[in-house]
TrEMBL record:
Keyword Hydrolase: yes
A Gene Ontology BP annotation from the UniProt entry: carbohydrate metabolic process
E.C. code: 3.2.1.52
GO-annotated molecular function: beta-N-acetylhexosaminidase activity
Name of the protein this chain belongs to: beta-N-acetylhexosaminidase
Annotated source species: Propionigenium maris DSM 9537
InterPro entries: GH, Glyco_hydro_3_C_sf, Glyco_hydro_3_N, Glyco_hydro_3_N_sf, NagZ_Beta-hexosaminidase
Source domain of life: Bacteria
């Protein structure tokens, strides 16, 4: 019988004993990795993913699950930017791109160590991180601040460091999103994304990253709803546009045979439209499992997905041998990491761990803030008595932008007289502003700051700046009349959206600590230390 994850003979006996006692219902349940909001499950899933919620509530729900479920599940969350990906009342984290901007891979280790340690204290045993996508296309809406940049060598170094940080606290890292996001300008939440690199170019970039992570011990890889058409066309052109999550060529031929991967394979969220662009949901789930996937992430109706798999087994569409191999891989990983017998994590030191993490993340934030350019020698700023116009470009779902309010208050504390012009408001006076003379504008404002926070969000198709006012009233028509600067709390590419603005700062995150540090540096109280993570590519261009 084949064993997985180099488990010992004794551990394998435990695995076989567990599988021997499992019913078909138990086995099918292990193939489903569900998201838990408020619902209860009618079967025991192989994994449960939590969205952010208060720690005490989270701990209670995980405790209830472990008490009810005969086989304890993987407990995971999106922790790539800190423990708030799971624990809503935890410390503010840092983004992977912030880490890359520090120029120190050790900070990626610290990100994984702290995120994993704090989440482990709440009950996590797995993290959907690190993200090792390459930001090749600056119009890609999904990588941006979630990745480590555009250079494969650096992504390998930072990805491996974060990977090791998670393992330090007994949290299993999940490497994602195979075969690699960041090439197309599409969002797999809305349609199948495309990685259209030629096979050899893929091998020297994404392929090299995954080879390195596999060699470093990657045990779980998440496959995305991302097609790899040029590679797949060499074997089966009729399925070239299928997402990797449904592609036997990508999973078995490329990932398993060519890259030699034998670990656990999980899909990205199957709520995404990119998953069902070519198949019905039932067809997609069975196709994924037969293509080599071990676990299906998320369900619209868990019982319905369970029924799909059970019916496929009864009809012979999926064999019991295939189900057993997937279950053996899942249980083996749980046994190896002592998940089935793991006691609830001790919480006595969680406050101390969180406080140390807060200090570390503050240092990383300070080291990441990047002065992209200051061609007009505007900095440091003198703000006492200055009339400052703040123009937010945020595209948030709510009219109220807490980051704009916080940043404006920071400026006021520095002595500035602040006006915020949010032209998304129905009662904005853009018509009057359009009639304002240059002389009046110059008399009214000494400085204009664009505060841009177009964040990476599911279903967002672009991270570009978009102005809201009629006739470009809020566009930077005044750069040669009044000192103007741009501060980005998200995408590092807004310099191309407003190239006429001669002072640009990239913060890579919208936390309060990030804004605190930006204002410190604007005032000259501390130096800018960050390095543009895309400096090599910009030089090449």
């Amino acid at each position: 019988m084949k064993t997985f994850f180099n488990i010992s003979r004794e551990e394998n006996k435990i695995v076989e004993g567990i599988i021997g006692r499992m019913s078909l219902k138990d086995k099918i349940g292990q193939l489903l990795f569900l998201k838990q909001d408020e619902e209860e499950f009618s079967f025991t899933p192989g994994g449960v993913m939590f969205r952010p919620q208060p720690e005490e509530k989270l701990r209670g729900r995980i405790r209830d699950n472990n008490n009810k479920m005969g086989i304890k599940p993987f407990i995971s969350a999106n922790l790539e930017s800190g423990p708030r990906g799971m624990i809503s009342d935890s410390i503010e984290g840092v983004t992977p791109l912030q880490v890359a901007a520090t120029g120190d891979p050790l900070n990626a280790y610290r990100l994984g160590e702290i995120s994993g340690g704090v989440a482990r204290g709440a009950g996590a045993n797995m993290a959907f991180s690190p993200i090792v996508d390459i930001n090749i296309n600056i119009d890609n809406p999904m990588v941006a601040t979630r990745g480590f940049g555009s250079e494969a060598d650096e992504i390998i170094e930072y990805g491996k460091s974060e990977f090791e940080g998670f393992l330090k606290n007994e949290v299993i890292p999940v490497v994602k999103h195979f075969p690699g996001d960041g090439v197309s300008s599409t969002d797999q939440h809305l349609l199948t994304a495309v990685n259209d690199l030629e096979p050899e170019e893929w091998r020297t970039t994404y392929g090299r990253i995954y080879r390195e992570l596999i060699a470093s011990g990657a045990e779980v890889i998440m496959v995305g709803h991302i097609s790899l058409p040029r590679y797949v066309s060499e074997f089966d052109s009729s399925k070239a546009n299928y997402p990797a999550s449904l592609s036997e060529v990508v999973i078995k031929k490329l990932l398993k045979e060519e890259l030699g991967y034998e670990g656990l394979i999980i899909t990205d969220s199957t709520h995404m439209a990119g998953y069902t662009s070519f198949h019905s949901r039932r067809e997609a789930i069975i196709t994924s499992l037969n293509a080599g996937v071990d676990m299906i992430l998320f369900s619209r109706d868990p019982n319905e997905d369970f029924k799909y798999i059970e019916e496929a087994y009864r009809s012979g569409e999926i064999s019991i041998e295939s189900i057993d191999e997937k279950v053996r891989r899942i249980i083996s990983l749980k046994v190896k990491h002592n998940i089935l017998d793991r006691e609830e994590a001790a919480s006595s030191n969680r406050r101390e761990l969180a406080e140390e993490g807060r200090k570390t993340f503050t240092k990383i934030t300070d080291a990441s803030i990047t002065l992209f350019k200051d061609e007009q020698k505007l900095l440091p700023l003198k703000l006492e008595g200055k009339k400052v116009l703040v123009i937010p470009i945020t595209r948030t779902k709510n009219i109220r932008d807490s980051e704009v309010e916080y940043f404006s208050e920071l400026l006021k504390k520095e002595g500035a007289k602040v006006t915020v012009k949010n032209y998304r408001d129905e009662d904005s006076d853009e018509g009057e502003d359009l009639k304002m003379s240059v002389e009046e504008f110059v008399n009214r404002y000494d400085l204009v700051i664009y505060l841009v926070n177009v964040k990476v969000l599911s279903n967002r198709t672009s991270l570009r700046m978009e102005y809201n006012a009629f006739n470009g009233v809020d566009a930077p028509w005044f750069v040669n009349e009044v000192d103007t600067m741009l501060i980005s709390l998200s995408s590092p590419f807004h310099d191309r959206d407003a190239p006429m603005i001669k002072t640009v700062i990239n913060g890579y995150n919208d936390t309060e600590v990030t804004m605190d540090k930006i204002v410190e540096k604007l005032r000259g109280r501390s130096p800018f230390k960050g390095k543009d993570p895309f400096r090599k590519r910009r030089q090449d261009v």
